Amino acid sequence: xxxxxxxxxxxxxxxxxxxxxxxxxxxxxxxxxxxxxxxxxxxxxxxxxxxxxxxxxxxxxxxxxxxxxxxxxxxxxxxxxxxxxxxxxxxxxxxxxxxxxxxxxxxxxxxxxxxxxxxxxxxxxxxxxxxxxxxxxxxxxxxxxxxxxxxxxxxxxxxxxxxxxxxxxxxxxxxxxxxxxxxxxxxxxxxxxxxxxxxxxxxxxxxxxxxxxxxxxxxxxxxxxxxxxxxxxxxxxxxxxxxxxxxxxxxxxxxxxxxxxxxxxxxxxxxxxxxxxxxxx
Length: 281
Known about the structure:
- The chain has 281 residues and is an alpha/beta fold.
- The chain has helices at 13-25, 44-58, 74-80, 90-102, 105-112, 156-165, 257-266, 271-275; strands spanning 2-6, 30-33, 118-122, 131-135, 170-172, 180-185, 188-194, 203-210, 215-220, 234-241, 245-253.
- The strands form two sheets. Strands 3-4-5-9-6-7 form a six-stranded mixed beta sheet, covered by helices on one side. Strands 2-1-10-11-8 form a five-stranded mixed beta sheet.
- A hairpin with an 8-residue loop joins strand 3 (118-122) and strand 4 (131-135).
- The relative contact order is 0.17.
């Protein structure tokens, strides 16, 4: 099965539309979103509407096609009142206050219904058992994860913490805006690094091997709406699993980031939020 994975759309509907078209071309059978639907960008309602539409259409053959396949991020939790402005830098907080006033009741209701964690079953194990995939926005570990704090999974040390606490063979995270892969085998971290970037290409691959009782994998698809790895193009991933192994394709797709930056300025959001789109930082 080919599963589309997105995260951190951040109210950038222009980037999200480009990713939606690319996901259609990629032949996915399921779609997962690791949170932060809104924040930073100028189109929170349109971005939320597109996500809801894509989840409902792509996952229509599966139980709970929308809320069983998406989790809340920290920006989404600001809208619900679970986090206040003190948890964010000044530019992010200003954009969130603007977003809170801008969103429709339908958007607010959707964001408020998002769970903090979902576990998805994919029935492709050779022994007949389902492959379980956990989705959370940030790092998941027993010592630091609370409803009001979303730590980053960004290096080998944080990957080891996350994978040690992880209870499923595969987990999907977001939050850092940088594509990442981590593999724990026999209690030892064998891979914990940013994913190999595609450079001037549109896609790179990572072979993550087979699943077993002693082997766990975590991956981050990167950010649709605000990449931070030096590549201005929108990021997403495709997880391809079969009975014995998993592969990940990390994709990039160009969009009109200048138009989004101009709209950020025209709506009097912090200029830095638009300027960073041009450099992918």
